[in-house]
Every structure is written in structure tokens, then in C-alpha cells.
Amino acid sequence: MPSVVSFTPLLRSSIGFDRFNDLFESLIEGTEDRFDSYPPYNIEKVGDDQYRIVMALAGFTSGDLNITAEGDSLQVSGRVGEKADEGRTYLHRGIATRAFQRSFRLADHIKVTGADMRDGLLTISLVHEVPEEKKPRTIAIKGPDQLPAIEGKKEE
Questions:
Q1: Which of 53, 58, 93, 100 is most exposed, with minimal Cβ within 10 Å?
Q2: In b/e form, how buried is each residue of 126-149, taking b as 16+ CB within 10 angstroms?
Q3: For the segment 18-42, what is each residue's pLDDT rounded down to a tens digit?
């Protein structure tokens, strides 16, 4: 019976990647925590060059979170302050508010444009901005019929 290989787990934390070599190299480093499932998140493509990461963070406030974009890495971390639990006695605690750190590897020219925390969902907006010098451009082709006339020489 043939085995089916799914690359879905490998693509969960990469946004805008076109080069698989870079992706696999990044997965070799630190694979033990790469597939941690807390906190749950979605990566959405909302336009041709726009992406969004939505993380479910019930129990967290925007003050409990830290988002850092550096180079090709996006780090999201959170820690709920201990003061939030003072004076509370839990009979059942099902909402996980444990500290976390989630890393995303961004492809070239992916920029973080903003973040919004609403109704327990952290939404991080991203855009793929290719610099003008990296965009494809049309090159004019010159031929003998388009060369300028040599000065001082009459055309016959």
C-alpha cells in the first residue's frame, strides 16, 4: 500500500513562498517546536498581493502580546499577566492562556502592514510589495532600421 505524503504541515508557517529549498532549510532548524499547535491560527490570502494571519487568542489583551518583524521573520509572542487571575477560583479552566511564541518565515518583499486585536482574534495584515527595480520590465530591441544617422553623412 503506497504512503501518501502531505506537505500541508510544512506550508503552515510560510507566507508568500515560491522557493521550496529555503522552506525546507528553515524547517530543518528547530523542527521539534515547528509543529506546535498553540495558539491556533489561519493564514489567508485576501488579494493578489495581500495576506492575513488570524490567531485565536482568547483571554489575551493587546497589552499581553508582542509582534516583531525582522528581516524574513515574524515573531508573535504572548504572556498573560499573573494579576489577571488574582481573586479567582477556577472549578474548570478550559481557556488556555499559557505563554507562547509563534514564528513565521516570510518570503522576500512581504511586509507587515498592521495588526488588530478584536473579539479574541489577533489579525496581522501582510502585503507583498515588489520594489520597482525587481518588477519585470520590457526592454526595447534596437535594429539597423532604428539606429540614428551618422552626422555629416547624407542618406541616399
A1: 93
A2: bbbeeeeeeeeeeeeeeeeeeeee
A3: 455 455 555 555 544 445 688 999 9
E strand spans, the chain: 14-15, 41-47, 50-56, 65-70, 73-78, 100-106, 110-118, 121-128
CATH dotted code for 8-86+93-133: 2.60.40.790
3-class SS letters over 1-32: CCCCCCCHHHHCCEECCCCHHHHHHHHHCCCC
Q: CB of 74 within 8 A of CB of 68?
A: yes
Q: Cell numbers at residue 16, please? A: 508568500
pTM above 0.85, yes or no: no
Query: In whole angstroms, what is the distance from residue 23 CA to residue 31 CA?
Result: 12
Name 52's bridge partners: 44, 125
Residue 83 DSSP SS3: helix
Task: Say if strands 100-106 and 14-15 run parallel, antiparallel, or are unpaired.
Answer: parallel
CA distance 148 to 139: 18
Q: Which is nearest to 39 in space by CA: 68, 59, 9?
A: 59
pLDDT top residue among 127 and 148? 127
Which residues sit opposite 73 in a β-bridge? 70, 105
